[in-house]
Write a structure and sequence with these properties.
Elements (H helix, E strand, L loop, with lengths): L1 H22 L2 E9 L9 E4 L4 E4 L12 E13 L2 E11 L1 E4 L1 E2 L5 H4 L5 E10 L2 E10 L5 E6 L11 E8 L7 E10 L10 E9 L5 E9 L26
Parallel strand pairs: 3-5, 6-12, 7-10, 11-13
Antiparallel strand pairs: 1-2, 1-4, 2-3, 4-5, 8-9, 9-12, 10-11, 13-14
């Protein structure tokens, strides 16, 4: 009988612990890996919204200082000043690319297939312009790029025109899939230029065109157009299917 009582108490303790764990909020965020020692497995994550995450569960990894990541986590302790100790559930690196100059030679590989991007899913952080996007595909690898048009085309009010391009590589449009990509804005700087204003054009499905106006102060994201990617936004990212 005593053994039965002990077993019941033990089971109740496990269930209680599980219930407490279930109540812990799980968040998802986008940020940048920060390492003080390049060879170390220890790192922090500077979220685009301004918070800083200090992982409790450090493990062997191949992340480098400056890598962009999507992180799923639970807060275990608030340290104040926007710093949080966290348990990490999942950590995926984000496709990170340079902005390219469109030329006749790369026109076909860049492509111009439609893609879904919500205006609220474009933002500037940590010297990158970032996009959460959706597209229809099946198994083929898709390409996404941010390009400057021929001869650095500008709008009538002087904004540099950029186009977010998608090449589906003739994939079947079977499933709606998601991805995230970050493009380095530092490459847009000309000599003596401290900021730039630009317009991003995106060809969507049904022949709709999304236009997003932004500005970037080189080396100072705080003075640039910003939108912090919202916490707890759930997306199914398949990084191996985009490049």
């Amino acid at each position: 009988m005593k053994r039965l009582v002990v077993a019941v108490i033990f089971l109740m303790a496990i269930l209680s612990a599980c219930n407490k764990e279930d109540k812990l909020p799980e968040w998802m965020g986008i940020g940048t890996i920060e390492k003080s020692i390049a060879s170390s497995n220890e790192f922090t994550i500077a979220l685009d919204g301004g918070d800083r995450l200090l992982p409790n569960n450090i493990y062997e990894n191949s992340f480098e200082n400056g890598d962009r990541v999507v992180v799923s986590y639970t807060v275990t302790n608030s340290l104040g000043n926007g710093e949080f100790e966290v348990d990490i559930y999942d950590l995926d690196d984000i496709l990170t690319k340079e902005i390219v100059q469109l030329t006749e030679a790369i026109q076909d590989s860049i492509g111009n297939d439609p893609i879904y991007v919500k205006e609220d899913n474009i933002w500037i952080a940590n010297n990158y312009i970032n996009f959460v996007f959706e597209y229809y595909g099946q198994y083929t690898i898709h390409y996404v790029n941010l390009v400057k048009l021929y001869e650095d085309t500008h709008t009538d009010d002087g904004r540099l025109i950029l186009e977010f391009r998608h090449n589906s590589n003739d994939d079947f449009s079977s499933y709606l899939q998601s991805g995230v990509v970050s493009f380095n804005l530092e490459g847009l700087q000309d000599d003596g230029q401290d900021s730039i204003e630009f317009l991003v054009r995106i060809k969507e499905y049904d022949d709709e065109i999304l236009e997003w106006e932004g500005s970037y102060t080189f080396g100072n994201t705080q003075k640039s157009t910003q939108f912090a990617w919202p916490k707890n936004q759930k997306i199914d990212i398949l990084p191996y299917q985009i490049k």
